[in-house]
Amino acid sequence: MMSKAITIAEAQRYDAHTINEIGIPALVLMERAALATFNNLLNDDFDLSRVVVVAATGNNGGDGIAVARLLHIRGIDVEVYLLGDPAKATSQTAQQLKIANYYHIPFTSDLNHVVNATLIVDAIFGVGLSRDITGKFADAINAINAADAKTVAIDVPSGINADTGEVMGVAVVADSTTTMAYNKIGLLTITGKQHSGTVHVADIGIYAQDHLEHAR
Ligand SMILES: NC(=O)C1=CN([C@@H]2O[C@H](COP(=O)(O)OP(=O)(O)OC[C@H]3O[C@@H](n4cnc5c(N)ncnc54)[C@H](O)[C@@H]3O)[C@@H](O)[C@H]2O)[C@H](O)CC1
Ligand SMILES: [K+]
């Protein structure tokens, strides 16, 4: 059931259908995305001594901040390196920031913490990437790639165009990628495969409509 690969437009359409027509709240999907990533982190035998989640303020970042919370509650040393203006976060990511604040999850603005992590979670961009990456976002991706740490990407390695596999200026080279609902066609290209590592497709409750016909 989960073997097909989809485009960015399909991912966005299935998300919107699940939220707006079926009625599963967006935060429920985000929690499932975070739990799936968290489970892959725990199962894949990574060194979890110092985890840094690098997150931007879109929903990919929200997934990452929720992963940071799940790790923190487990007693794992985790920090969040936040990129972008939190005042412009999506509503779900603003909610994740509020929850993270309740748990006093540490935030860092020091890229050395990224470089010295034992595991990095890439939650900068997913299917919302829309232009070449520059500035602080590019600096963070270069730091992730310079680190000895293993890197796990959420949904798409940041900087990879999920339709074409093209590197949008610069892109995270991940050891493993937890991608949501279906694989993305860009991750099946040569550059896509080089950047995503081992791909885990996570069932988070989002399905193509033809896959749901048997259930209604
Ligand atoms: N929709 C859902 O409920 C779910 C989404 N999931 C995750 O969300 C991302 C997609 O989130 P979205 O907010 O649409 O986009 P991104 O987070 O990927 O990024 C959008 C954000 O970034 C800005 N932007 C785009 N390109 C650049 C750039 N080159 N430089 C700087 N900024 C850039 C853009 O303007 C937006 O503000 C999806 O991949 C999933 O990870 C969940 O999985 C759950 C369901
Ligand atoms: K990502």
TrEMBL record:
Co-factor binding details: Binds 1 potassium ion per subunit.
Gene3D superfamilies: YjeF N-terminal domain
MF annotations from Gene Ontology: metal ion binding; NAD(P)HX epimerase activity; nucleotide binding
Keyword NAD assigned: yes
Domain of life per record: Bacteria
Keywords of the record: Isomerase, Metal-binding, NAD, NADP, Nucleotide-binding, Potassium
UniProt keyword annotation of NADP present: yes
Known cofactor(s): K(+)
Residues where (6S)-NADPHX binds: 59-63, 126-132, 155
YjeF N-terminal domain boundaries: 11-212
Binding, K(+): 60, 122, 158
E.C. number(s) listed in UniProt: 5.1.99.6
Pfam families linked to this entry: YjeF_N
Catalytic activity: (6R)-NADPHX = (6S)-NADPHX; (6R)-NADHX = (6S)-NADHX
PROSITE patterns tied to this protein: YJEF_N (PS51385)
Function: Catalyzes the epimerization of the S- and R-forms of NAD(P)HX, a damaged form of NAD(P)H that is a result of enzymatic or heat-dependent hydration. This is a prerequisite for the S-specific NAD(P)H-hydrate dehydratase to allow the repair of both epimers of NAD(P)HX.
Family in the record: Belongs to the NnrE/AIBP family.
Protein name in UniProt: NAD(P)H-hydrate epimerase
Gene label: nnrE
